[in-house]
Hints:
globular, alpha+beta, five-stranded mixed beta sheet
Amino acid sequence: MLLYATVPGYYAEVERVAYPGLAGRPVIVGGDPRKRGLVQSATPDALQAGVVEGMPMREALERCPKGRALRTDMPRYRNVSSRLRACFRRLTHRVEPAGLEAAFLEPGRPEETAGELAERLRETVREELKLPLRVGLAPAKFLAKIAAEEAGASGILRIEPGEVTSFLAPLPVSRLPGVGAKTAARLAELSVHTVGEVATLDRSVLEEHLGNHGLAILGYAQGRDDAHLRAVPQPRSLSQESTLDSDELDLASIQERIEGLAQRLEAGLLLERLAAKRVTLKVRYADQEQITRSCTLVR
Protein backbone atom coordinates (compact mmCIF):
# COMPACT_ATOMS: atom_id res chain seq x y z
CA MET A 1 0.00 0.00 0.00
CA LEU A 2 1.17 3.52 -0.90
CA LEU A 3 0.12 6.63 0.98
CA TYR A 4 -0.45 10.16 -0.26
CA ALA A 5 -0.60 12.78 2.49
CA THR A 6 -1.66 16.36 1.76
CA VAL A 7 -2.83 19.53 3.49
CA PRO A 8 -5.88 20.73 1.50
CA GLY A 9 -5.98 24.47 0.91
CA TYR A 10 -2.39 24.61 2.14
CA TYR A 11 -1.66 28.34 1.80
CA ALA A 12 -4.96 29.29 3.42
CA GLU A 13 -4.59 26.79 6.27
CA VAL A 14 -1.06 28.03 7.01
CA GLU A 15 -2.44 31.57 7.24
CA ARG A 16 -5.11 30.40 9.69
CA VAL A 17 -2.40 28.99 11.94
CA ALA A 18 -0.34 32.19 11.63
CA TYR A 19 -3.36 34.32 12.53
CA PRO A 20 -5.50 32.48 15.14
CA GLY A 21 -8.15 35.19 14.87
CA LEU A 22 -9.06 33.76 11.44
CA ALA A 23 -10.23 30.45 12.96
CA GLY A 24 -13.76 29.78 11.80
CA ARG A 25 -13.60 32.43 9.07
CA PRO A 26 -13.21 31.66 5.35
CA VAL A 27 -9.71 32.48 4.13
CA ILE A 28 -8.80 33.20 0.50
CA VAL A 29 -5.15 33.55 -0.54
CA GLY A 30 -4.00 35.05 -3.81
CA GLY A 31 -3.00 38.20 -5.63
CA ASP A 32 -4.17 41.77 -5.12
CA PRO A 33 -7.91 42.04 -5.97
CA ARG A 34 -7.29 45.58 -7.26
CA LYS A 35 -4.79 44.27 -9.80
CA ARG A 36 -6.80 41.33 -11.12
CA GLY A 37 -5.07 38.89 -8.77
CA LEU A 38 -6.17 35.26 -8.88
CA VAL A 39 -7.11 32.84 -6.10
CA GLN A 40 -4.29 30.43 -5.26
CA SER A 41 -5.75 28.73 -2.21
CA ALA A 42 -8.91 28.73 -0.10
CA THR A 43 -10.20 27.03 3.04
CA PRO A 44 -13.03 24.46 2.71
CA ASP A 45 -15.71 26.91 3.90
CA ALA A 46 -14.64 29.37 1.18
CA LEU A 47 -14.80 26.62 -1.43
CA GLN A 48 -18.29 25.68 -0.25
CA ALA A 49 -19.31 29.31 -0.77
CA GLY A 50 -18.37 28.99 -4.44
CA VAL A 51 -14.74 30.09 -4.48
CA VAL A 52 -12.65 28.25 -7.07
CA GLU A 53 -8.87 28.26 -7.31
CA GLY A 54 -7.76 30.28 -10.32
CA MET A 55 -10.74 32.64 -10.37
CA PRO A 56 -10.23 36.42 -9.90
CA MET A 57 -9.92 37.42 -6.24
CA ARG A 58 -12.58 40.10 -6.74
CA GLU A 59 -15.10 37.50 -7.90
CA ALA A 60 -14.14 35.20 -5.03
CA LEU A 61 -14.90 37.94 -2.49
CA GLU A 62 -18.25 38.57 -4.17
CA ARG A 63 -19.13 34.90 -3.78
CA CYS A 64 -17.76 34.74 -0.25
CA PRO A 65 -18.25 38.23 1.28
CA LYS A 66 -17.32 37.00 4.76
CA GLY A 67 -13.97 35.72 3.50
CA ARG A 68 -10.68 37.27 4.51
CA ALA A 69 -8.42 37.93 1.52
CA LEU A 70 -4.67 37.60 2.13
CA ARG A 71 -1.71 38.11 -0.17
CA THR A 72 0.49 35.12 -0.98
CA ASP A 73 3.44 34.73 1.42
CA MET A 74 5.78 32.17 -0.15
CA PRO A 75 8.59 32.43 2.47
CA ARG A 76 6.09 31.45 5.16
CA TYR A 77 4.73 28.53 3.12
CA ARG A 78 8.22 27.22 2.35
CA ASN A 79 9.17 27.43 6.03
CA VAL A 80 6.12 25.45 7.12
CA SER A 81 6.71 22.98 4.29
CA SER A 82 10.19 22.23 5.69
CA ARG A 83 8.59 21.48 9.05
CA LEU A 84 5.93 19.32 7.40
CA ARG A 85 8.53 17.22 5.56
CA ALA A 86 10.53 16.87 8.77
CA CYS A 87 7.40 15.40 10.39
CA PHE A 88 7.06 12.94 7.51
CA ARG A 89 10.71 11.85 7.67
CA ARG A 90 10.57 11.26 11.41
CA LEU A 91 7.78 8.73 10.87
CA THR A 92 9.20 6.98 7.79
CA HIS A 93 12.30 7.31 5.60
CA ARG A 94 10.25 6.33 2.55
CA VAL A 95 9.13 9.80 1.45
CA GLU A 96 8.72 11.31 -2.04
CA PRO A 97 7.81 15.03 -1.82
CA ALA A 98 4.97 16.16 -4.09
CA GLY A 99 4.88 19.95 -3.78
CA LEU A 100 5.07 22.09 -0.66
CA GLU A 101 2.03 20.53 0.95
CA ALA A 102 2.12 16.83 0.06
CA ALA A 103 4.16 13.64 -0.28
CA PHE A 104 3.91 9.99 -1.23
CA LEU A 105 4.99 7.65 1.54
CA GLU A 106 5.46 3.99 2.45
CA PRO A 107 5.74 2.45 5.92
CA GLY A 108 9.38 2.26 6.98
CA ARG A 109 8.90 -0.14 9.87
CA PRO A 110 8.19 -3.83 9.22
CA GLU A 111 5.82 -3.95 12.18
CA GLU A 112 3.78 -0.90 11.13
CA THR A 113 0.86 -1.09 8.71
CA ALA A 114 -0.05 1.61 6.21
CA GLY A 115 -3.18 2.39 8.22
CA GLU A 116 -1.18 2.88 11.42
CA LEU A 117 1.24 5.19 9.61
CA ALA A 118 -1.67 7.23 8.25
CA GLU A 119 -3.06 7.74 11.76
CA ARG A 120 0.35 8.76 13.12
CA LEU A 121 0.89 11.20 10.27
CA ARG A 122 -2.40 12.97 10.93
CA GLU A 123 -1.84 13.10 14.68
CA THR A 124 1.74 14.38 14.40
CA VAL A 125 0.92 17.12 11.87
CA ARG A 126 -2.10 18.20 13.88
CA GLU A 127 -0.17 18.40 17.16
CA GLU A 128 3.03 20.01 15.84
CA LEU A 129 1.79 22.23 13.01
CA LYS A 130 -1.94 22.62 13.79
CA LEU A 131 -2.69 21.69 10.17
CA PRO A 132 -5.36 19.30 8.83
CA LEU A 133 -3.90 16.36 6.93
CA ARG A 134 -5.74 14.06 4.54
CA VAL A 135 -4.26 10.69 3.69
CA GLY A 136 -5.14 8.31 0.85
CA LEU A 137 -4.05 4.66 0.85
CA ALA A 138 -4.11 2.62 -2.35
CA PRO A 139 -2.12 0.09 -4.40
CA ALA A 140 -1.02 2.78 -6.93
CA LYS A 141 0.28 6.34 -6.68
CA PHE A 142 -2.41 8.11 -8.66
CA LEU A 143 -5.07 6.17 -6.76
CA ALA A 144 -3.62 7.20 -3.41
CA LYS A 145 -3.72 10.85 -4.50
CA ILE A 146 -7.36 10.63 -5.58
CA ALA A 147 -8.21 8.80 -2.34
CA ALA A 148 -6.72 11.65 -0.30
CA GLU A 149 -8.76 14.16 -2.30
CA GLU A 150 -11.91 12.11 -1.60
CA ALA A 151 -11.14 11.50 2.09
CA GLY A 152 -13.36 14.33 3.28
CA ALA A 153 -13.88 15.06 6.96
CA SER A 154 -12.76 11.57 8.02
CA GLY A 155 -9.24 12.46 6.88
CA ILE A 156 -8.30 8.94 5.71
CA LEU A 157 -9.58 6.88 2.79
CA ARG A 158 -8.28 3.41 1.95
CA ILE A 159 -8.83 1.70 -1.41
CA GLU A 160 -8.23 -2.03 -1.38
CA PRO A 161 -7.08 -3.76 -4.59
CA GLY A 162 -10.50 -5.35 -5.04
CA GLU A 163 -12.24 -1.97 -4.73
CA VAL A 164 -10.31 -0.08 -7.42
CA THR A 165 -12.79 -0.61 -10.27
CA SER A 166 -15.87 0.35 -8.27
CA PHE A 167 -14.09 3.37 -6.77
CA LEU A 168 -12.93 4.77 -10.11
CA ALA A 169 -15.99 4.00 -12.25
CA PRO A 170 -18.27 6.93 -11.25
CA LEU A 171 -15.55 9.59 -11.21
CA PRO A 172 -15.42 12.15 -14.05
CA VAL A 173 -12.65 11.55 -16.59
CA SER A 174 -10.96 14.79 -15.51
CA ARG A 175 -9.82 13.05 -12.30
CA LEU A 176 -7.43 10.81 -14.24
CA PRO A 177 -3.78 11.90 -14.70
CA GLY A 178 -3.19 13.52 -18.07
CA VAL A 179 -6.84 14.39 -18.70
CA GLY A 180 -7.15 18.14 -19.08
CA ALA A 181 -9.85 20.21 -20.69
CA LYS A 182 -8.86 19.32 -24.27
CA THR A 183 -8.63 15.58 -23.64
CA ALA A 184 -11.92 15.61 -21.72
CA ALA A 185 -13.56 17.35 -24.70
CA ARG A 186 -12.19 14.71 -27.10
CA LEU A 187 -13.55 11.96 -24.87
CA ALA A 188 -16.91 13.71 -24.66
CA GLU A 189 -17.09 13.51 -28.45
CA LEU A 190 -16.97 9.74 -27.96
CA SER A 191 -19.81 10.03 -25.39
CA VAL A 192 -17.32 9.20 -22.62
CA HIS A 193 -17.69 11.20 -19.42
CA THR A 194 -16.76 8.88 -16.54
CA VAL A 195 -13.71 6.76 -15.73
CA GLY A 196 -15.84 3.63 -15.96
CA GLU A 197 -16.79 4.50 -19.53
CA VAL A 198 -13.14 4.98 -20.44
CA ALA A 199 -12.26 1.59 -18.97
CA THR A 200 -14.74 -0.18 -21.29
CA LEU A 201 -13.43 1.43 -24.48
CA ASP A 202 -11.50 -0.68 -26.95
CA ARG A 203 -7.78 0.08 -27.08
CA SER A 204 -7.94 0.72 -30.82
CA VAL A 205 -10.57 3.45 -30.36
CA LEU A 206 -8.51 5.37 -27.82
CA GLU A 207 -5.34 4.92 -29.85
CA GLU A 208 -7.07 6.19 -32.98
CA HIS A 209 -8.36 9.36 -31.32
CA LEU A 210 -5.63 10.08 -28.73
CA GLY A 211 -2.61 8.01 -29.73
CA ASN A 212 -0.29 6.71 -27.01
CA HIS A 213 -1.74 9.29 -24.64
CA GLY A 214 -5.09 7.52 -24.94
CA LEU A 215 -3.53 4.16 -24.07
CA ALA A 216 -1.96 5.67 -20.97
CA ILE A 217 -5.33 7.06 -19.90
CA LEU A 218 -6.90 3.64 -20.45
CA GLY A 219 -4.33 2.12 -18.13
CA TYR A 220 -5.19 4.60 -15.38
CA ALA A 221 -8.93 4.01 -15.92
CA GLN A 222 -8.32 0.30 -15.37
CA GLY A 223 -6.36 1.03 -12.19
CA ARG A 224 -2.86 0.45 -13.59
CA ASP A 225 0.07 2.67 -12.70
CA ASP A 226 3.70 1.62 -13.15
CA ALA A 227 5.11 4.61 -11.25
CA HIS A 228 6.99 3.60 -8.11
CA LEU A 229 7.69 5.68 -5.04
CA ARG A 230 11.06 7.42 -5.39
CA ALA A 231 12.16 8.15 -1.86
CA VAL A 232 14.29 11.27 -1.38
CA PRO A 233 17.14 10.68 1.08
CA GLN A 234 17.44 12.79 4.19
CA PRO A 235 19.37 15.98 3.37
CA ARG A 236 23.13 15.78 3.88
CA SER A 237 23.47 19.55 4.03
CA LEU A 238 21.41 22.59 4.97
CA SER A 239 22.00 26.13 3.79
CA GLN A 240 20.79 29.68 4.29
CA GLU A 241 21.65 32.80 2.34
CA SER A 242 21.06 36.54 2.59
CA THR A 243 21.74 39.57 0.40
CA LEU A 244 23.06 42.79 1.95
CA ASP A 245 21.06 45.91 1.20
CA SER A 246 24.11 48.02 0.28
CA ASP A 247 27.77 47.72 -0.70
CA GLU A 248 28.94 49.45 2.47
CA LEU A 249 31.19 47.36 4.71
CA ASP A 250 29.55 47.48 8.12
CA LEU A 251 31.06 44.74 10.27
CA ALA A 252 28.38 45.06 12.96
CA SER A 253 25.51 44.56 10.49
CA ILE A 254 27.36 41.69 8.77
CA GLN A 255 27.87 39.98 12.13
CA GLU A 256 24.20 40.41 12.93
CA ARG A 257 23.23 38.94 9.55
CA ILE A 258 25.51 35.91 10.03
CA GLU A 259 24.07 35.31 13.51
CA GLY A 260 20.58 35.28 11.99
CA LEU A 261 21.64 32.78 9.34
CA ALA A 262 23.21 30.56 12.01
CA GLN A 263 20.04 30.64 14.09
CA ARG A 264 17.90 29.60 11.13
CA LEU A 265 20.31 26.76 10.33
CA GLU A 266 20.19 25.61 13.94
CA ALA A 267 16.40 25.55 13.77
CA GLY A 268 16.57 23.51 10.56
CA LEU A 269 18.94 20.99 12.13
CA LEU A 270 16.59 20.58 15.08
CA LEU A 271 13.66 19.95 12.74
CA GLU A 272 15.56 17.22 10.92
CA ARG A 273 17.09 15.92 14.17
CA LEU A 274 20.55 16.26 12.65
CA ALA A 275 23.93 17.45 13.93
CA ALA A 276 26.39 19.47 11.86
CA LYS A 277 29.90 18.14 11.25
CA ARG A 278 31.23 20.95 9.07
CA VAL A 279 30.31 24.64 8.74
CA THR A 280 31.01 26.62 5.56
CA LEU A 281 30.71 30.36 5.01
CA LYS A 282 30.51 31.59 1.42
CA VAL A 283 30.64 35.27 0.43
CA ARG A 284 29.87 36.46 -3.10
CA TYR A 285 30.59 40.06 -4.07
CA ALA A 286 28.75 42.21 -6.60
CA ASP A 287 31.40 41.45 -9.24
CA GLN A 288 30.72 37.70 -8.69
CA GLU A 289 34.05 37.13 -6.91
CA GLN A 290 33.51 34.42 -4.31
CA ILE A 291 35.37 33.57 -1.08
CA THR A 292 34.75 30.42 0.95
CA ARG A 293 35.88 29.48 4.44
CA SER A 294 35.02 26.23 6.26
CA CYS A 295 35.58 24.65 9.64
CA THR A 296 35.18 21.07 10.87
CA LEU A 297 33.55 20.94 14.28
CA VAL A 298 35.22 18.96 17.06
CA ARG A 299 33.04 16.88 19.34
